[in-house]
Amino acid sequence: MGSSPCTSMVSPARQLPSLRRLLTYCSVWLLVLFTIIAIATLPWTLSWMNIQQLDEAVRHGPAVAPVLSMDAMIHSSDGPPSAISGVLHNVSSCMGHDDLGRSLFLRLLPGFLISLGIGISAAGIAVVVGVLFGSIAALAGGKIDAAMMRVVDVLFSLPYVLTVILLKVALTRPLTALFGGESAVANLVILLVAISGVSWLTMARVVRGQVLSLREQPFVEASRAAGAGWLHILRRHIAPNLMGPITVYAALVVPQAIMQEAFLSFLGIGIQPPTPSLGRLATEGVEAVNTFVSYWWLIVFPCAALVLTLVALNFVGDALRDALDPKSSSASRTTSRSVR
Amino acid sequence: MLEKVAERVVAGGGGREAMLCVRGLVVAFGQVRAVSGVSFEVGSGETLGIVGESGCGKTTLARAIVRLIEPSAGEVFLGGRDVLRASSSALLELRREMQIVFQDPKGSLNSKMRVGEIVGEPLRVQRIGSRADRRVKVLSLLDRVGLGASSYDKFPHEFSGGQRQRIGIARALAPDPKLLVLDEPVSALDVSIRAQVLNLLADLRDELGLTYVFISHDLGVVRHFCDRVAVMYLGKFVEVGAAGDVFSFPRHPFTRGMVGSIPTLDGRGRGEDTVGLTGEPPSPIDVPAGCSLHPRCPVATERCRIDAPALVSLDGDDLGRIVACYHPV
Predict the structure, then answer these.
(1) Could you tell me the pLDDT band of residue A52, with boundaries at 50, 70 and 90?
(2) Which pLDDT score, from 0 to 100, does residue A63 have?
(3) Mind telling me how many Å the CA of B167 is from chain A's nearest CA?
(4) In this structure, is residue A267 part of a structural domain?
(5) Using CB atoms within 10 A as the burial measure, which of A195, B91, B98, B272 is most buried?
(6) Would an 8 Å CB–CB cutoff place A237 in contact with chain B?
(7) Which of B68, B109, B160 sits opposite A225 (nearest CB)?
């Protein structure tokens, strides 16, 4: 490069704020994700029905509440049926119904939201617990650090499915009593505990490693040489540099947790019927497939929704890593792109 | 008693008031003694160069002087005040007067902070001035090191290596220090940029009357930049003297070997009679008994294997040269 040493040699891409960089890396998959979320929330945005009505339609179907067929719902809403409602009605018809006559489409929408909700809350729990645990271990150091990380090792080595089953056996009754007989809520809590109980372990390790390496960075030394206290160093140097790895890892925990929810629901120890989730719907689809009559739509559509969600979330997570990771944003990436 | 030591120390320093005084400094990491008993003084406004092979303890010494690592033994006085026994509030005040510039211009700047925040950090930590005052001060510092006011709101990655090192220098200058420890400040820079940064450091020294401890393995740079030079081998000083003298007439075998290894344009070694050193520096975990150089030294005798020589001034040398060798050349 022929520029003089006094002018900064920076390509414009490196000066972009990370949000815009994120959009350049994965705009398609963000669009897919937001589209799925927008479709899943359509019952509310189009004000088809209130929560109770939806709950009835999703959980019990026409056998219990015969009035609430898709037709009835669309026509019973306050305004005149819009074009979107018409299209959705057709989509719903094409996706078919399950063995109880419930609209698969109508069950997929909250099923997706429940799965996503579990994924996001598991990531949230993993972030809070993992960050606290990992950073305390790294900052305390010595024997405390060793003891805390052995706890993580032990939890890691527990057989996962067995632990979840034991948790379920042990916790279902007390939790159901705690939530006033709402076994669905109790199930959800157990599932969250089981999933986030595993994902915070990796987060704790990641955070501990990051804090340990950040603590020795020359810029932290410079800050100490200037007389900074540990609180200042934690707030101004360590926390801002932790944000990137934490965000990236949290974004990757969401699809992992959704996958685990699907896996556990598939085994029958996750979400309990009649509450829908992507994994639950796939299970019901598998149960409905037999050698004589194949209700293929019951397995194809939930699985397609699951795959699309996971792929989109994973791509967004990877793009977040590219956008936030200081290593990938360093000279090598930009030069390779400017050479192109 | 401490005051007495400090007084004696201030009185020393070859006529000039000693800005920095180090006595018997030892830094041990478990079995390894990275710095084992180093003593020296740096006069006010003086530049002391410290040279040595990699791994000889130069950087550890630098970090111990500004108390980034706690030495195992020894004393450090800055302007007569005890650095190592200072209470945390006294240390905070002492830190205004001694700052350090690091080798790695990339790692020493927090990539998430803007240049203005980075340079203003010592002021902020030391609670010097209001926010507006600090901004004015930072802008003048940036101007002083040759960076425009526009750099205030930029991030470190928008700058080249030389510019980043200028930012590091501006940060070190922020609390108006008297002593600057420069830990290989130009080693990571391109040769073309080294001269610019060295000139900047020299200008700052003259303008602000700074005292430098300049650590480097680049003998040419040290020779031209420093008043005095100390040669370090395996955690100890082996020869200390005026920079020109030490490089022109090295007395210690290690210094001779080191100076003789400087490549010259005509392909000959500097000084035809140089007896080179052989072998690798021994592991600091297992330092040889006696003079630690003896396994590699061409003039070593039985005495060198048993007794470690002390730094003493030599007969017929009134230039303040001290050498730790029984058989100086």
Answers:
(1) low
(2) 47
(3) 12
(4) yes
(5) A195
(6) yes
(7) B68
Q: Could you count the other beta carbons within 10 Å of the beta carbon of residue B223?
A: 18
Q: Could you tell me the CATH number of the domain that includes residue A258?
A: 1.10.3720.10
* Partner A contacted by B134 (CB < 8 A): no
Task: Report if pTM > 0.80.
Answer: no
Q: Examine the predicted complex and report whether its ipTM is higher than 0.95.
A: no
List the single residue in B with minimal CA-CA distance to A18.
B112
Answer yes or no: do A224 and B92 touch at CB < 8 A: no
Q: Long-range contacts: A75-81, Cβ < 8 Å, 24+?
A: A76/A49, A77/A46, A77/A47, A77/A48, A77/A49, A78/A47, A79/A47
Q: Domain locations in chain B?
A: 250-323
Tell me whether residue A135 is in a domain. yes
CB-nearest to B192 from A5, A15, A225 is: A5
Residue B93: name the closest of B67, B64, B115 by CA.
Answer: B67
Q: What is the pLDDT of residue A169?
A: 84
Whether B255 has its CB under 8 Å from any CB of chain A: the answer is: no
What's the CA angle centered on B88, arms B86 and B90, to 5 degrees?
Answer: 55
With beta carbons less than 8 A apart as the criterion, state whether B176 and B165 touch. Answer: no
Instruction: Tally helices (H) and strands (E) across chain A.
Output: 16, 0
Would A166 be classed as within a structural domain?
yes
Tally of structural domains, chain A: 1
List, edge to edge, every strand of the sheet that includes B322-323. Answer: B98-101, B179-183, B211-215, B47-52, B228-233, B236-242, B322-323, B312-313
B125 in reach of chain A (CB within 8 A)? yes
Q: Is residue A15 within 8 angstroms of chain B, CB to CB?
A: yes
The whole-number pLDDT of residue A4 equals: 42
Quick check: A154 contacting B, CB < 8 Å? no
pLDDT tops 80 at residue A77: no
Write down the number of H helices and E strands in chain B.
Answer: 11, 12
Question: What is the model's pLDDT at position A128?
Answer: 93
Q: Give the domain range for residue A117.
A: 107-331
Q: Is the pLDDT of residue A61 over 80?
A: no
Please check whether residue A270 lies inside any domain of the structure: yes
Contact residues for A32 (Cβ-Cβ < 8 A; gap 6+): A308, A312
User: Phi and psi of A74, rounded to 5°?
Assistant: -65, -40
Cβ contact A226–B99 (<8 Å):
yes
- Asked if A226 is an interface residue toward chain B (Cβ–Cβ < 8 A), one would say yes
Chain B residues whose CB is inside 8 A of the A218 CB are 102-104, 107-108
List of chain B residues with pLDDT < 70: 1-16, 264-276, 315-319
Q: Does A17 touch chain B (CB under 8 A)?
A: no
* CA B206/CA B201 separation, integer angstroms: 9
pLDDT at A247: 85
- Contact A312/A33 with Cβ under 8 angstroms? yes
Q: How far apart are the first and last CA of chain B?
A: 40
Alpha-carbon torsion angle A17, A18, A23, A26, nearest 10 = 150
Chain A interface mutation, best of B98, B134, B154, B160, highest count of A Cβ atoms under 10 Å: B160
CA–CA dist B69, B62 (Å, integer): 9
> Which pLDDT value is given to residue B204?
93
- Tell me whether B65 touches chain A (CB under 8 Å): no
Nearest in space to B139 (alpha carbons), one of B174, B106, B172, B163: B174
